Here is the input.
Amino acid sequence: MKLNWGTSIVIAFVAFISFILFFVVRMSTDYRANHDLVTEDYYKATLEYQDEIDAEQNANASAPLQLEKSPDGVLLTFPENFAPEGVNGTVSFYRPSNKNFDFDLPIDLSTTQFLVPDKRLLDGRWDIKVAYEYESEMYLHKESIVY
Here is the structure.
């Protein structure tokens, strides 16, 4: 049987459409391609954004926080002029590649340093957000690291 050019074009179109549909179905059902929103309450977060800007300016102007990687984990060093027992807040670790690895830790200081243990951190990029309060003033430090 010999195919004419019209039949060949139809077969080529059907093959191309099948190829595209195969990849659409494959990508929509693959768990590795599951990209979630950054936050669940997106609109609520945008309304609170000015408070974050003010807290970040407070931290940068008067109380810079130092964050460094150490063999034991991630070490946060709070300003020396802060009394450790007066600092309250949370440290949030956000993993852009998988929200299942995100976690928050309450800040509980006995010295000006706070250590996040190595066993909680996987290799890769982490976005760290330290939100804390000292003497009724809010502070915020954001940083991204590759661990």
